[in-house]
Amino acid sequence: MTEDSVIDQLHAADVALSVEAGQMRDHPVIAAAGAASEIADQPPAFALAAIALGAGLLSRRPRLAEGGGRALAALWLATRTKSAIKSVVVRTRPYKLLEEGHYETGVNGPDSHPYNSFPSGHTADAFAAARAIGRVAPGARGPLLGLAALIGLVQVPRATHHLADVIAGAAVGIAAEAVVHHALQALPDDRVRAGRRALIRRRGASGNDA
User: Fold this and answer.
1) Which residues, 6 or more positions from 123, have their beta carbon under 8 angstroms from its beta carbon?
2) The pTM is what?
3) What is the largest CA-CA distance in the chain?
4) Kind and range of the H or E element at 121?
5) Which is the most buried residue in 66, 100, 201, 205, by most CB within 10 A?
6) 173: part of which helix (H) or strand (E)?
7) Strand partners, 116
8) Would you list the DSSP string of 62-119?
């Protein structure tokens, strides 16, 4: 069996899974889970990270502020990465396949929502944020990654993404957070600690002046 035939078989199995799982897209449980997964869409994900950063600064809680800041940076990089991929890779979303019987994949084709299924942005954002927060709250790492996995997996029966899109999205999110983490690790520890103290003092002084 050639490499191309293996890839073709995996691709066909991925599409077949989407068709079968997508039959459940109108089930109340799937609809509810899908709606809840919108927390990982760009606007709410960035808003929650910004709120965590702001709350940490206002309450003088460096770990909360750091978690929010890390999440913001990881989300930004994950979003930029997945958007760059989507602008090149064409893949029909499952709902269009189910509703119209139309499916195509390739590169440099239509760059619109029905054709930019790969990779899953919701999954990328969920994993980027989960990994970022887990750096400062290790006890929450497992549950957060489990939640990120659920957010990704529900996109398949929801008919918004194929399973391969979800796997690729998870890889994008994990990689983006890793880049942010290593960039922060490269900063001298004394400067990081001084920066944290300065931000907290500055925010506290601003609050006292108000």
Assistant:
1) 40, 148, 151, 152, 155, 161, 165, 166, 169, 170, 172, 173
2) 0.88
3) 72
4) helix 121-136
5) 66
6) helix 163-185
7) 91
8) HHHHHHHHHHHHHHHHHHHHHHHHHTTEEE--HHHHHHH----EEES---SGGGB-SS
